[in-house]
């Protein structure tokens, strides 16, 4: 008997990975809503110490709260119901010859992943409550005091790895992009590579990655430092919550790509807008801007494993000419500030702090930020940490999916048996038929990438796939679509 069947990507992933993969969606915010020294979580009512790349609601401002975000006329993200605010420090390049700073191009805007990972003993996930806000990362961090690369996660259950201090530092990633080779896994490197490494290896730029805490105390929607009311699960992205933070929220993950390769061959230094040349001080802010009941419905029902917003019927998806023309209103003091360059100091003139000592920039609950932070250089240029390229590991049998990580479809005999079991069944694949395959010798890879085609066009590669054929006494052929791509049009030369 010969039995041939075809299944789409989603069905194949459901069949192969349901034991290891939780549902998610990635919220594309392809256009900035602004680039400005605005940060209501740290510098409420005044100007921020440094410039941020802003995404989301047009209601964002120096005093914005939940009501202001919801009242915003538009959002720069693709789903009209998402009036949240997402922001991170911008990236600049300082030319050694001139000393001037220039904004690095941001490719494809940003992606905010909503990963639906429950605790092992409770599958309930709660939406972010109205008024919820948090910060991930530490703007003043300038070192990493743990082994490089990370030890395997199975060893994270003992000190010092079973601490929030470690998990906070491990929540940063700087993914060296080269689309001609197998991608690195997410959160592999917790610091910004030095200029020579970037020029030699990162031909498609660097993807800045940031994981947010997903464990909540269930009481406080915010805290003085914007961190104390939340905690990381035991494996940063996956794992279980601490007992005093029992409520599991969506695991929020930011990806932002900066075109560092544009400056290849030019002597200089890449610098985060907060005066950090190391990357250890990378951070991000989030203010919830969804209708709470709507978001809970999305958490409960938007469970398609493709991760695409188009696969959730709840979402209203905007055209690019709508979201790309959504901008925040700048305060008069910032209306004419040059945040693009070339400029002799970073916007706001924050002090340049190399570390390894702790920096002194403004932080939530700490000193207030001012329009002029004083500038200057703190510490000395320290030897850059190094971590060689490493292809992302297969996540098929040992890990849960991570954004930018790699799925591997097994082509071994056990996979054949599993496919045959489904092929000969009269019923559709169900959770009872799920098989967890071993790591394959010849896997198919699934990942996300961006490729700049021209000045106003970006190509998004949602995944890279191949046809997998398995044969036994009876033949079953599984056909997976070839690499899917789509073109994303941006305003020509759009910069803020």
From TrEMBL:
Acyltransferase listed as a keyword: no
UniProt KW Acetylation keyword: no
Domain DUF1996: 39-290
Keywords attached to this entry: Signal
Source superkingdom: Eukaryota
One Pfam family in the UniProt entry: DUF1996
Signal peptide boundaries: 1-23
PANTHER family: DUF1996 DOMAIN-CONTAINING PROTEIN, PTHR43662
Protein name as catalogued: DUF1996 domain-containing protein
Organism whose genome encodes this protein: Mollisia scopiformis (Conifer needle endophyte fungus)
